[in-house]
Design brief:
The complex is a heterodimer. By secondary structure, chain A is mostly helical. Chain A has one domain (about 1-265). Chain A is built from 12 helices and no strands. In chain A, α4 (about 70-90) runs parallel beside α8 (about 145-170) and α4 (about 70-90) crosses α11. The two termini of chain A are about 25 Å apart. Chain B is of the alpha+beta class. Chain B has a domain at about 265-400: abc- transporter (atp binding component) like domain (Coagulation Factor XIII, Chain A, domain 1, Distorted Sandwich). Chain B starts with a helix and ends in a 33-residue tail after the last strand. Classes of the chains: A mainly alpha, B alpha+beta. The interface of A and B includes residues 11, 13, 18, 105 and 172 of A.
Chain lengths: ~260, ~425
């Protein structure tokens, strides 16, 4: 563990240029360059805010705005998009970097760090856009915003833990890479992101409580949409789960690494 | 060859003064394991599940490389060269044994790994050197050198997609060698850009070696191995077959690639300290070889430019459809000086019967530089010894060239020119002296 932290520090130059290059190449040769980074999430939020609010104007209990549904939805999306982006990229991280791993020696821990860094930047852009849109809609919850730092940390922990675990296995059993997008779809609809948690039938309420993302996205809703503090007990539970997953994937990586490059 | 590491370093110490080795390889082996399914493989990390089968790509590899030593790795495709190098660089993990390196290992194998066409040369250098584990400050210090060495001018600050492939290679080589490593692995594809840059990159590698970097050179090119390396290691089917002087190893390697028909390869140490390699299927063999002056006297010392006659007696042991005899003159370090065979001279003998003997007389002027030369012989079918090799003998005959009456010259070939020189004074343009 300490060894890999040292390696990350030693390769900080590689990590920072990787993250920067990822952004640079994404917008290279486009006229307005980095502005696309704002335009993409902005259009997404605007579609939800304007279109869906017009169609589904139903007020949600606890949010005092005619755009209640849009606000609820974007709050959830902020958490979900971070989770799913990190998870998806971790799933293919070793396979996509197989050339690099086969030919050069570097601490592999740098790869998930790069992913986390670049996903966090994307998420930050989305967050800024959301704040602006919320301000325009007249919805502002400044007192609970600092909680987002904690939520982001927990989301990263969960996504990295699960993503790396599956990413390592995916090197050997490639079906995982095919299966996960489907599972993620199920997970998305099994988590109250596009629908309010309250409309879930009683019978399913207990079942859905087993989904860790239910609690994570719920916390995002509390902080961004309802403006009250999230349940600390739930957050502690999620953090422990995330740390546990990350620990298991670290052990799995240690066991798998002698054979990893052989299988790539 | 089952030399213990101890013996190896003993034999080496006669040719080199060996400080602490930079690279120690002991009992190294790599196996690929197969399991009934991949779930079993995952389970095997946590339990004692045995693999279905193990395929050993490399096994029992032992050698040391001393500071400043240049070692060539030769072997046919699939002999385990790449696997060995990948384990030395550290991308592959050994299944057994260990590699101990003292210092940084760098490889000029995959030049331009991780280069991005949208980024400038400078940005790519920063990224690439970061991938080698250097910090921003270290790279900044070296950036000027890298830019100067690559010599691509203003292109250095343009996106790499507009580079020619040669320019990319120049930048890639410049980064890869910006920091002197303790062990440098050089692939045979050291054809970096044009001839000018190749010389330049070669000089840099030589300079590293002078400063104490050990070189590991992988190549099929005999000339490269013999001119660059102090030592060569021959890998065959995942094992070290031979470890010794480059010229001996290359002879042996040559014999192996001809060994297609279960012919055996014999190696005998000669009195001169060189090693003779004999191989072939044996349907025809050389009975005798001798060098004579034009008056018929046997020679072992030849004057530069002297007309000589090489006599080769060949015995046929089985009925053969055709026979080609070839010979090659090699200098002291094993570089080819001249060679041809009777296929190229359109003198193929056909329909030979067992029991026949043939005597070839090769007359030529010994226009060779002073020094020791050896003759290699081959008897085979068609144009090369690679198919139907009846016999191949290295160092079949050794003779000395001496310069008794010619003017002093250097090199292995006597190509004496007539030299003319014109001098012009500032006032008159007419030549006033010639030599």
């Amino acid at each position: 563990m300490l060894e890999s932290l040292k390696g990350t520090w030693r390769y900080r130059q590689f990590i920072t240029t990787s993250i920067r290059h990822e952004l640079v190449t994404r917008f290279a040769r486009s006229r307005i360059g980095g502005a696309w980074m704002i335009i993409h999430p902005l259009s997404m939020v605007l579609i939800y805010a304007l279109v869906l609010s017009a169609v589904l104007a139903a007020k949600l209990p606890g949010i005092d705005s005619q755009y209640a549904y849009a606000i609820y939805l974007t709050a959830g999306m902020l958490g979900w998009s971070l989770f799913s982006e990190i998870l998806n990229r971790c799933l293919g991280v070793f396979i996509e970097n197989s050339n690099l791993m086969k030919k050069l020696v570097f601490p592999k821990v740098a790869l998930p760090v790069i992913i986390t860094g670049s996903c966090l930047i994307n998420n930050l852009a989305l967050f800024v856009v959301i704040l602006v849109v919320f301000a325009i809609l007249g919805h502002f919850t400044p007192s609970t915003l600092p909680w987002l730092i904690v939520l982001t940390g927990i989301t990263v922990l969960l996504a990295l833990g699960l993503g790396l675990l599956l990413g390592i296995l995916n090197v050997f059993i490639r079906d995982i890479g095919q299966l996960m997008p489907i599972v993620l779809q199920f997970l998305f609809w099994f988590t109250p992101v596009v629908y309010p948690a309250e409309i879930v039938p009683e019978a399913l309420q207990t079942l859905i409580a087993f989904n860790p993302l239910f609690h994570l996205i719920g916390a995002y809703h509390s902080v961004l949409a309802y403006g009250h503090a999230p349940s600390v007990a739930a957050l502690v539970g999620l953090a422990v789960l995330g740390a546990g997953l990350l620990f298991v994937s670290a052990i799995l990586f240690r066991k798998a690494s002698p054979e990893m490059v052989d299988a790539l | 060859m089952s030399q213990s590491p101890h013996q190896q370093s003993e034999t080496q110490s006669t040719t080199h003064t060996r400080p602490k080795p930079l690279l120690e390889i002991r009992e190294l082996g790599k196996a690929y394991r197969r399991y009934p399914n991949e779930l079993m493989r995952v389970a095997s990390w946590f339990s004692a599940i045995k693999p279905l089968e193990e395929t050993w790509i490399l096994r029992d590899v032992n050698f040391d490389i001393a500071q400043g030593e240049a070692v060539g790795i030769v072997g046919q495709n699939g002999a385990g060269k790449s696997t060995l190098l990948k384990m030395i660089t550290g991308t592959l993990r050994p299944t057994e044994g260990y590699i101990r390196t003292h210092g940084r290992v760098a490889a000029i194998l995959e030049l331009g790994m991780g280069f991005n066409g949208e980024l400038t040369g400078r940005q790519n250098v920063l990224h690439s050197a970061g991938l080698m584990g250097f910090t921003h400050a270290q790279i900044d210090d070296a950036m000027e050198d890298i830019e100067a060495f690559a010599e691509i001018g203003d292109y250095f600050d343009q996106p790499m997609r507009v580079y020619s492939s040669g320019m990319q290679m120049r930048v890639a080589f410049s980064v890869a060698t910006a920091f002197r490593p303790e062990v440098l692995i050089v692939d045979e594809a050291l054809s970096v850009g044009d001839a000018y840059f190749q010389h330049k990159s070669f000089d840099r590698i030589r300079e590293f070696q002078r400063q104490g970097t050990s070189l590991l050179i992988v190549s099929h090119d005999k000339a490269a191995i013999q001119s660059l390396c102090d030592r060569a290691i021959l890998l065959d089917q995942g094992r070290v077959l031979e470890d010794g002087l480059p010229q001996d190893i290359m002879d042996y390697y040559n014999a192996i690639i001809a060994q297609k028909e279960n012919a055996k390869v014999e190696i005998t140490p000669l009195d001169s300290g060189q090693i003779q390699t004999r191989s072939g299927s044996g349907e025809a063999s050389v009975k005798q070889i001798s060098l004579h002056a034009t008056n018929g006297n046997a020679l072992d010392v030849v004057d530069v430019g002297q007309p000589v006659e090489l006599r080769i007696e060949v015995a046929i042991h089985a009925d053969l459809p055709e026979l080609v005899a070839g010979y090659k003159l090699k200098d002291r370090v094993g570089q080819d000086v001249f060679g041809t065979n009777t296929w190229h001279t359109h003198q193929v003998e056909r329909q030979l019967n067992a029991g026949e003997t043939l005597t070839y007389c090769l007359r030529f002027n010994a226009n060779l530089g002073p020094g020791s030369y050896s003759v290699s012989l081959s008897l085979h079918r068609s144009d090369t010894h690679l198919t139907h090799n009846y016999q191949w003998i290295d160092h079949a005959l050794v003779f000395q060239m001496v310069n008794m009456e010619k003017d002093f010259f250097l090199g292995t070939s006597w190509v004496m020119p007539t030299i003319q020189c014109e001098r012009k004074t500032a006032k008159s343009s007419a030549p006033n002296e010639s030599v």
